[in-house]
Predict the structure.
Amino acid sequence: MFDKVLIANRGEIAVRVIRACQEMGIATVAVYSDLDREALHVRLADEAYSLGGQTAAESYLNTEAIMDVIARSGAQAVHPGYGFFSENADFARAITEAGVTFIGPPPAAIEVMGDKISARKAAEAADVHGVPGTSEFLTSVDDVLAFGEEFGYPIAIKAAFGGGGRGMKVVHAAEEAADALESAQRESTAYFGRDECYLERYLERPRHIEIQVLADSHGNCVYLAERDCSAQRRHQKLVEEAPAPNLPKKIRKEMGEAAVNVALKCGYIGAGTVEFMWDGESYYYLEMNTRLQVEHPVTEMVTGTDLVELQIKVAAGHELGFTQKDIKVLGHAIEIRINCEDPAEGKFLPSPGKITKLRVPSGYGVRWDGGYEAGDEISQYYDNLAGKLICWGQDRDTAIARTLRALKEFEIEGVATTIPADIAILEHADFAAVNHYTRWVENDLDLTGVKSGPAAPASEEDDEPKVRRDVKVEVNGKMFDVSMWVPPIAGGAVAAAPKKRRSAAASSGGSGSGQVTVPMQGTVVKVTVEVGQEVEVGDTIIVLEAMKMENNVAAEKAGTVSEVRVSPGDSVGGGDVVAVIS
């Protein structure tokens, strides 16, 4: 077994892995960006090392910096969590070539399954077939248009080296293709460090069913029940549950065996998830995620397994120690992703900021996997998941009732969250009757009036920047170079000015005011209009990236653009005016 494990991630998944390691008697090494230097995962780990930088590209996607920390810390293994480098074969290979264990599948398996194109081919070789799609990377928008001509619309453009809905855009008509491809590539690069994309026919009303698999290096592979992840918005999951309700036993068994066959076919080792679409009659292979899933806790709750512990043991060369016949599913579990977003009557607007109060629910069958505490900051530069609420019940009705009780007990202030939308989902008759599907939240669920309470404004003290000072400190006669983060006034230090917001005014931005305001803090990635251009209500004015999600900021008034106050790369805050329509 390992003596020391480095966790190449942040947030709740880093905390989850650190806790598992602590229970196994394994020392932990955290890494952090400049923005995360006081984060919960840093506070909990035995050791913590700075990667520098603020954005993911500058820190958690910086291979050279992470490799340097591995060498300095003496870590024997690396757990990648999910997102970032978790499905990056080059990173896994760099780790293993350095003589360090990658707690995940072999690089070759990641290359096959992490690349969604080759994964489709591997699945077909295992006689598991998906929806119609491409087997090559997109080279231009012409590929999208040709696919639409052959198979019709809608079409899904998907990140070839990602998952979880990041970098996925749905094209409903040919005129949307160019902008959708450009947006998918930007999101894919921001989240996964690569921009390759591919196409699939987009199914209109499927349920999203996924199978948790676990394989060791001794040829053993099992599936640990299935999960239903059909309650989604923007192709990202809000609510997950295990087992999948109303799924025929025959289909459950076929899906499980198909998932195992896919894993064995690519020489898989570790925890992974094979995802399917189910339309009530047939199921289609979607993709395989070669990592731990965000929703793994519901599988743990109904099977009595610790998937992170098993990941670590398998990576250390241990056998599973159990077979398919030993796996029993008991009761029902539901996971709620507590995202820092205002449901905003269905718009789901990111809400970065400081958590000023956090009181999580408790009680029988209630679990909280969180990455933050009161006083911690939800940054615009990272994913907006604050944590996950998981509730178990002896049956689905009990699990729903317990989850609703826990959600209403939950208290979080300083940022808006998806909790009001989560309650609306669980209280709806369609969810109870399992009549929901992957687009149900966006197409059918009435979220009129469903919004989060206003986020508390940051105080001047909260906004006070800190600057880094490198100083020499003498300890017991030995000199050390030490970095300190201090207020700019300390020691006469002067803070470097952040990139200035280009908008000089803020507005309530009432409907039809002519002032186009942004609803949240973020970075302008695209300006779609110019001064003198005529626009209609609903036309996109800018594209704003916040928490690695792109948001279109639209005109609420028809007219002529008289001012554009921002450019790509500008940082803006909630309420800032980015354009004026006369």
Notes: The chain is about 25% helix and 30% strand.
